[in-house]
Fold each of these.
Amino acid sequence: MMRTTLILCGILFLAPFHVIAQKFDGLAETPPMGWNSWNEFACDVDEDLIKATADAMVESGMKDAGYEYVNIDDCWHGERDENGFIQVDPEKFPSGMKALADYVHSKGLKLGIYSDAGWETCAGYPGSRGYEFQDAQQYAAWGIDYLKYDWCNTEGLAAEGAYMTMRDALAKAGRPILFSMCEWGTDAPWEWAQDVGHAWRISGDIYPCFDCEYRHEGGWSSWGVTKIIDMRADQEIRQYAGPGHWNDYDMMEVGNGMTIGEDRAHFGMWAMLASPLIAGNDLRNMNTQTLDILTNEEVIAVNQDAEGVEAWKYQVYDSTGVWVKPLADGDLAVAFLNRSREDHTINFTWTNHVFNDPHFNYSYNFKNSEYEIKDLWTAKKMGTTSKPMKFTVPGHDLKIYRLSGK
Ligand code: GLA
């Protein structure tokens, strides 16, 4: 009796202190869409840029197309105050972060911010190590909606624990903040982060080229589009992604110097891979071709499809890979990615093919079922899968088709 009472007292005593934190549900049922400052502006961020970007997101039609988050990357930080609360750089953000969040919210958009699990961010600003709960509290008080959490200067830390700490801190702060993990795939987050973050980066940083590796001084590299697509092929990471927890192939470089075909291939593949669609160009100054790619409704619908399944690579013909993405209601998207510089004409006899998903139970047998085919760049109907389809994929470009059951 005495023992039971003691145990009960122990449980009662401990119970209020034992909080089981969870990430916020329902924030990323489809891949997040928005914009981030880093790819185009690096450390050159301030409140005017963020406000003008929010304005442009609305005026350009990007908001209507589904883009929602306006995300400030590294270099917004000032010092911590005497109580340890992080402050903005008063010169770059003279009105303060709360006022900026109010502005972005008044446009019907959401505001994202950046921090780092280590002692310093990648650009050398204060990291969240040791201040996780205070930082989360501060972000919540400011009205932040999205946190990108980086992995520089984390020597000696274990990724899973460090990211769980910030997840718990966000939960404690109480404001639903989308948690975007940026540890570059170093510790295979797809294997453990489903209940930790809403998306996790799978690669080092992207570079605005189709297939190059850009070597920085100091021995690290940034990666072209196809390098990132291929980076985790052996780990078969698509099996770990789904509604609420996505593989993040990095912020996009559409409009940042590649050819139109390369931008199309990049955007189309990010859609096929169910990656977050975070634009990385200057929204205040983009040409119609860039805007047309970024706002292609039907390609976005492939990315945002409720089934939440990433594409798999079915086959490669010469230099052209065929990718298949199962969609809701039995539809599917099929993309042909031409990696060579030469145009590639393909005569695709659908009825010779059966697409069997290597990880899930999707199977498409074109002998048994007929589908209508639509080219998502041209919006042209291409007939049905009952007949061979002849088409050309230009060099460094991508064709993407939606197939709908008849
Ligand atoms: C890392 C990240 C980038 C960017 C920079 C900022 O390299 O991977 O996406 O956030 O830090 O310093």
Note: Residues 159-173 form the longest helix (15 residues).
Amino acid sequence: MRKYLLAIISTLLLAAPSFAKDKKVTVSLFTDYNIGDTLKVFGSTGMELKSAYAVIDTMPGNKYNKMLHVFTTTTGCYVEVPLPEGMTGTTASANYDRVSAIINVPQGQKNCLGKKLVIYYGSKKASETAVTLTEGKGTTVTVSQTKVSAPYDKAIRIGLASATNSNYYIDNIYLVTKDYGYDYTVKEETARYWADMIGKSIGVCVNPDQLNDARVGQTIYRNFNLVVGENAMKFDATEGSRNNFNFNQGDQIVNWALKHNMAVRGHTLAWHSQTSQWVHNTEYSKEEMFAILKNHIFKVVGHWKGKIREWDVVNECLAENVGRGVGQGYQLRSADESVWYRRCGEAFIDSAFVWAHQADPDAILYLNDYNIGHWGNGHYENGKTHAIYNLAKRLKDSGIPIHGVGMQMHTSISGLQVDQIEETVKQFAAIGLKCIITELDMPGSKPSSDAEQKTQATKYAGLASIICRYDNAPSMVVWGIADNRSWLDDSEKSKPLLFTGEFEAKPSYISTRDMFRTQAERITGIEDIEDDGTFIEEPEFVDVYSLAGVKIYSNISRNEVESLPAGLYIVGGKKVLVK
Ligand code: G3I
């Protein structure tokens, strides 16, 4: 009998639902409140404070992001926010070691700076931790909390100690366990969410086989909003034999990307490498070579017209190690190396841009190259950077439809000087050209030390800061989704990218994400439809587009927009965030 009983108990135990608690639980993003709703405020003694005030509000210029606006008095004010259903102060403080929140300090509220964040459950204090805040921006703060006995309290009380006679905002309150790392299913944890918010792109090169692998695919579309085929759209992949086109590889990437509301880069149309062997095998005349290139460009760009946002029209056309001063011209890659230059002369560059523009007038067209980016300071790239500047300027000044330059940036942790990249972006801005990062990888030593990886994180964030701050620098793309999926030899040792081989976010990803977030909060995210002060007679019915410009909803009434599924849309030419 006893054996039988044991069998039943063990079965029950096995069948018992796992109570593995979530590592991160949302207390409130304030999305389910209405503007004007008020919450109770308590002092450190647990008495409700009638003079202090907490109201659901939005920040100037960011009308879609509801948050808690706290107005304090002459004492510590702690706002009472309900805990998730079924949770008490006891279980919240026992199961979650930390509390995370965004504290946004408006300009002028200096009394909020240098204070401690305090957490109560009922009258029991669970945390009082110094936090570093910055005037005029939102800061994510995460503080440890101790276990308290508060079995009957179903709310958390949160606020800044002695931030007297001030006002500040609280948003995105979470309970977090100590071992919580990074969860890309929480959109605010991803670089994509914040890049989307300010209309910037963070991209990655992909191959079709990666897209249908759940873990890889999810890591790509949740964290990035731009993809480029590592090889799928090159000459040899699309026109394996003359005038026989195969777009299958590229179609897989484009269709997948558009399904995930991602933009797509096309790479690349005219390049000395990976041009199909049939082009080399026959000594075509100059006229025929131009005809071959024109046909290739019209067929490839035309196939993805309206789906591919931008193209690397010409890739690596400059001589590798020949520098020039600004205004001192450029030297092209030799005729021995480049079949296009050999048979067409320099005009293949100009023609390629003209044909790409004719094939898709809306596509943004780039001249792409490596070992460029550092403007001065004696860096070995200086001369080639100036050379591509001279070539791009010559094309633009002669009316060729070039929109910008792509810096591949196959750099290194030790070699990259972020300030030099910023100078180059400025120089191109001054001549009306975009300047983007198209193939970034930043290897360290083999193996790359933790200290190196910390430096890498700082430099990735520095590049993200440039992308966020310069209108002519709309995107940065990394050349591989994980350290073990790079074209570089021994990349598992040199660790050049943003994710580990297990698709765990590295410090470089977190620092890049945080930079996009910081800049998005600085730029206050979403444009306010009436932010220019004039009342816009808004159309009763609108079309709703994805960020990639694909129409998702037609002719819906404007007041339905806010009830769409959470996400970012373009409505009436403006970005709209639905939380
Ligand atoms: O598709 C064939 C496959 O059928 C064959 O079995 C296999 C073994 O030979 O080769 C496969 O082709 C390889 C191709 O990648 C697709 O995987 C080529 O050998 C290989 O040389 C090619 O390497 C690519 C390289 O460009 C070619 O120059 C890398 O993946 C790609 O990351 C790299 O990317 C370039 C950019 O396009 C331009 N900027 C520099 C960057 C790094 O070189």
Note: The CA atoms of residues 125 and 188 lie 28 Å apart.
